[in-house]
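Per your request, structure below.
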């Protein structure tokens, strides 16, 4: 296993965890209303869902590669198009008061577990993100690597959550985040489109007819 593959998995876990979404928005609201400790408890619970969804995504990616390169290329195209759609939606995002997260009850840790496990967008986003960043190293993937890949992606998510917890506890962060939320979301949209192009560049050629 190469260091570039490990770094790609680490980066995938980090990007998946830190990209603005329902979980990130929720933890900013929790941090503002209940403090950094409650926000950290929420993210610790949410991490369980991240580990499960990222593990499932990695298993699907390796399975597609083992079945055949064509299957993996099809997955790459689907993931690229999905990321392209997510990026375009993010760039065109508009502020909406209905997106305000609901504050948890007395148990932010349990709330985080339920939030992470029931997010319907978690699995497709995880598959798309990991596929986009691993597509150029698909030939290195096999089942024996899965436990280590899960561990490395989890470490990436923990690093991302550490940054989020540090930011949530800073003074006036909630106000700043709300003020620039659209800008942050749109920048992430540009990043997703970049990943989509990367995935499509590596996947489409494998599906084109080869010259004799």
């Amino acid at each position: 296993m190469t260091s570039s593959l490990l770094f790609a998995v680490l980066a995938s876990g980090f990007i998946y965890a830190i990209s603005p979404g329902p979980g990130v928005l929720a933890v900013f609201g929790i941090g503002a209303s209940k403090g950094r400790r409650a926000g950290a408890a929420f993210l610790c619970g949410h991490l369980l869902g991240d580990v499960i969804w990222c593990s499932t995504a990695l298993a699907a990616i390796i399975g597609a590669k083992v079945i055949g390169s064509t299957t993996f290329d099809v997955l790459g195209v689907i993931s690229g198009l999905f990321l392209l759609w997510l990026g375009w939606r993010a760039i065109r995002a508009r502020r909406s008061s209905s997106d305000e997260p609901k504050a948890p009850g007395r148990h932010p840790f349990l709330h985080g577990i339920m939030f992470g496990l029931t997010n319907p967008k978690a699995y497709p986003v995880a598959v798309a993100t990991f596929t986009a960043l691993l597509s150029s190293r698909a030939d290195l993937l096999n089942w024996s690597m899965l436990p280590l890949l899960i561990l490395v992606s989890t470490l990436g998510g923990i690093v991302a959550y550490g940054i989020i917890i540090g930011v949530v506890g800073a003074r006036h962060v909630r106000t700043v985040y709300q003020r620039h939320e659209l800008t942050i979301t749109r920048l992430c949209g540009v990043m997703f489109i970049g990943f989509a192009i990367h995935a499509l560049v590596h996947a489409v050629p494998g599906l084109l007819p080869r010259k004799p």
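Residues 173-207 form the longest helix (35 residues).

Regards,
D.
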